[in-house]
Amino acid sequence: MTHLTAIILTYNESRHIVPCIEHVRFADVVLVFDSFSTDDTVTLAHGAGAEVIQHAFSDYPTQRNAALSAVANKTDWVLFVDADERVDTALADEILAMIATDEAVGWRLPRHNYIFGKLTRATGWYPDYQTRLLKIGFAQYDPMRLVHEVVLLDGALGTLKTPLIHYNYDNARQFAQKQRKYTTYEAKIMYEGGIRPKLRNYILQPLRHFKWRFVELQGYKDGLHGLRLSLLMSWYEFKKYWQLRGLWRKK
Asked: What pLDDT shows up at residue 194?
């Protein structure tokens, strides 16, 4: 019988960890791979029947590769799930059906994102494919992609139909914190690539980004919610170039 391990990466996820574990009990083993949480995440995980391994965090691809190594000789397949994600019964059934085949060594899942409590069906947040179902020995994470991790597969990639549910951002403050992190990282990558901002970038790039989100990615279908997200993401596109400017000025 094919063996499946569900792995949940955590750091201070006491709010989400128990319901997340409850939704992956169809796996043979549930492993919480924790970055030395300072809240009661580990205690709650043990209480919910999960195995727990603690590993110091440096970056996401390193953490995910460490988790893969930890179960390399104990399982055939791994399903990575974040603590704020949920796997419903239909998706669980599809996962179990696909790993019983030889169609692929990795599977990507569409994802339903709830942002500010609203299901976001456009604006770039759907289908939001995530490659999370991996066959052991055929997958690893690109160590150079520190955020928005990329899976390197030695074989075919398949696509599941049933979406993973993601309770993404609860409020604007949480959204802003995450986007600041992303823009800082992206500005650094551009700086290291020798890209210098031009005056027009501060105006044209945010406008292009808004058009891309609201028109091309059909953000208008999400109504005022899509308009708000498109405007916010355009603002952080401006902030990215502003931070890039700051890096060059420091030099």
From this structure: 96
CB 212 within 8 A of CB 123: no
Residues paired with 141 in a beta bridge: 151
Q: What whole-number distance in Å separates Cα of residue 229 and Cα of residue 172?
A: 10
Name residue, tokens 């597969």.
153
**What whole-number distance in Å separates Cα of residue 62 and Cα of residue 6?**
18
pTM, full prediction: 0.90
The number of CA neighbours under 13 Å toward the Cβ of 109 is 24
Range 43-58 average pLDDT = 97
Closest CA to 102 of 77, 79, 78, 71: 77
The answer to whether residues 142 and 236 touch, using CB atoms and an 8 Å cutoff, is no
What phi, psi does 193 have (nearest 5°)? Answer: -85, 5
When the candidates are 3.40.50.970, 3.40.630.10, 3.40.50.1970, 3.90.550.10, the CATH number that belongs to 4-168 is 3.90.550.10
Cα dihedral 173/178/184/190 (nearest 10): -130
| 23-33 tens-digit pLDDT | 999 999 999 99
Q: Which residue type is seen at 222?
A: D
The domain ranges of the chain are 4-168, 171-250
Query: What percentage of the chain reaches a pLDDT higher than 70?
Result: 99
192/165 Cα distance (integer angstroms)? 35
Residues in Cβ contact with 249 at an 8 Å cutoff, skipping those fewer than 6 apart: none
Q: Maximum distance among all alpha carbons in the chain?
A: 60
**Contact assessment for residue 65 and residue 146, using Cβ atoms and an 8 Å cutoff:** no
